[in-house]
Amino acid sequence: MAHLEVGDRAVRPVDPTQTSRTVLIVDDDEEIRHVLRLMCEMEGFDVVGEAANGVEAVPMALSAQPSFVILDYLMPRLNGDVTARILRCIAPETKIVAFSSLLEAKPEWSDSYLNKQRITEVVPLLERLIF
Description:
Strand content: 15-25%
Strand order of the largest sheet: 4-3-5-6-7
CATH class: Alpha Beta
Number of helices: 4
Low-confidence stretches: 14-19
Structural class: alpha/beta
CATH architecture: 3-Layer(aba) Sandwich
CATH superfamily: Response regulator
Number of domains: 1
CATH topology: Rossmann fold
Radius of gyration: 13 Å
Largest sheet: 5 strands, parallel
Order of helices and strands: EEEHEHEHEEH
């Protein structure tokens, strides 16, 4: 399947036969994005894109319509709160996982929440959200 270039990042358009295990990773820390990608891919999730902020994430989500967005809260240009509100409009079926070291509880804009110190629990959390 062809990739769409969004800024300097590639995103794959949605494949209707594989929508239940697709993930978009949005975090301003490149190392965190890399670790999340490896963890997701090792467990059979299809990472359809990575974004460093909400401005990059919005067109990716519109194109890919991922099953999940792992969304950092504090990012430059467009934070997680505002990004989530936009995502709800353009990708209403997408489940949003707030992923932050600052938040201490699930924000109202997310479907689930995970503190970054518990990064190893991200895949089991996505598995639970599938059903």
